[in-house]
Amino acid sequence: MGKISGSGTVAPHILVIFGASGDLAARKLIPSLWDLFEQELLPRTFGILGAGRTALSTESFRARLAEAVTKHAVRTPHDPARLTEFLQKIHYFSFDPTDSVAFANFATYVRTLDQSLHTEGNFIFYLATPPSLYETIPTQLAMHHLNREQGNFRRVVIEKPFGYNLETAQHLNASLRAHFQENQTYRIDHYLGKETVQNILVTRFANPLFEPTWNRTHIDYVEITASESLGVENRGGYYDQSGALRDMIQNHLLLLLGIIAMEAPAVVSSSRLRDEIVKVFDCLRPMGERDVMQHTVRAQYVAGKIRGVAVPGYLEESGVDPRSCTETFAALKCYIDNWRWMDVPFYLRTGKRLPTRVTEVIVHYRTLPIALFERIERPCAREGNALVIRIQPDEGIQLKIDLKEPGAGFKTIPVSVDFQYSALTYSHLPSAYERLLLDCMNGDNTLYHRDDAVESAWRFIDPILAAWKSNKSPLLTYPAGSWGPKAADDLIKGSALRWHHPSSTLLSDDFACRL
To answer: Which of 77, 187, 194, 365 sits CB 3.0–4.6 Å from 83 for a disulfide?
Structure first.
């Protein structure tokens, strides 16, 4: 089983989780902390303080989390004594963070707990809360002097969305900067914690096979897909205010684009790596209204079937406005105006209720100017060489090339050279939250978003949102279980260009597919 390595000895501290009675803490945070504990990567002097509005005792909170760890952790607990030891580190405080008096009581409790645990005044404040509290909680922490570093550390972690548009992102960043330095602020994106996303950097910059050809001279186009077979589930109210462009492309897919397109940093450090990603965002070709009409597609799923099971349309989902114009599918064609990538199209696509759950990047190489050999086509074969980087599920890399068909003559057949993480001696990759939580504990923000990157991404997305709002691009529909509207196929059509549909080997579980 995979084990991650810390960058050093983690200092004693208390991890405070606001919104601790919510789904994120139960499904991701606490199970990941248990996995770190099982690997002995947490300090011996360590505490977890859950904070939330839900009235719970510490004992009942621990009982909840014991069930969550058993259900969601990568490393299933087998030793009850070991699980009990972990749960003893967890505490709970019930209060309303918008109430100043209640927050003062909370601050007193935090300091008392710090003294009793001997955690040296080191705190990480994790906001697993609605975005409406992203300004309130840091402000209250500052009012009670829990943001000040005096020979210790105080860090704040926030989840996406980092704003609703450029204006709100700038406002949020300014509010955070008023109370926490940028090096104290950790904007978490779980995609950056994925082993396969980090492996893109290694694939590019550790292998001379790829980097010399990683440019406009050799690469024809790049596609990035993040598809989900599920609908909005119990997030209808939130999703209806967000949509696919905000929920996925503005952060996750642009992040993948940045890593695929960035220049090599001088060293792998927090500032240098993030500098290069920001440079990519700053080089994205701005879209005017005509560009939005020609190079973007938005759509909403209607009733259909997923693997033979009938599912409702988006407008019939719980919490969704029946007159909603929120897109559940978004696709766009964009360009990076720099020397490496000028005029190479990047196609980004995401959607809900598509045939399968998959996130992958496909780098398509240009075909040779003259075809010396006759090519025997296979079903689903593609023209030219391609590098498929599967982010999830069945994580791995696939290189598509042509080889000679056995026998007489020089006919070629398309073949694939594969690597899958599941083939390694351990069967599980560390979860994204394991890596990111440990990095935060070590004070390493390399894999976290920086304020200027967030704003640069919104600067590119805002004109698309504005044009969509004024109906410059129509809201189309697509049946659940399909790969989206025909307009998305038209977006990528060209000389042998078409979307890669990775659904030929569907798995029975979770509608996933093999690489």
So the answer is: 77
Residue set of the binding site for substrate:
190, 194, 228, 247, 352
Q: Compute CA distances 9 → 37, 271, 441, whole Å.
A: 13, 22, 10
Angstrom distance (rounded) from CA 25 to CA 11? 22
116 and 56 part of one domain = yes
Full-prediction pTM beyond 0.85? yes
> Annotated binding site: which residue ranges?
53, 160, 190, 194, 228, 247, 352
In a domain, 303, yes or no: yes
| For the chain, percent of residues with pLDDT exceeding 90 | 70
- Written as one letter, the residue type at 168 is T
Please enumerate, by residue number, every residue annotated as part of a binding site for NADP(+).
53, 160
Quick one: 107 and 220 in the same domain? no
Domain residue limits at 267 = 192-430+445-491
pLDDT at 383: 60
User: Considering its fold, how many domains does the chain have in total?
Assistant: 2
**Interhelix angle 254-261/195-205, nearest 10 degrees:** 20
In a domain, 378, yes or no: yes
Residue pLDDT, tens place only, 218-244:
999 999 999 999 998 878 888 999 999
**Number of C-beta neighbours around residue 449 at 10 A:** 22
Considering the domain boundaries, does residue 89 fall inside one? yes
Q: Establish how many alpha carbons lie within 13 A of residue 143's alpha carbon, considering only the half-sphere containing its beta carbon.
A: 17
The CA distance from 136 to 120, in Å, is 25
**Model confidence at 408: pLDDT above 80:** no
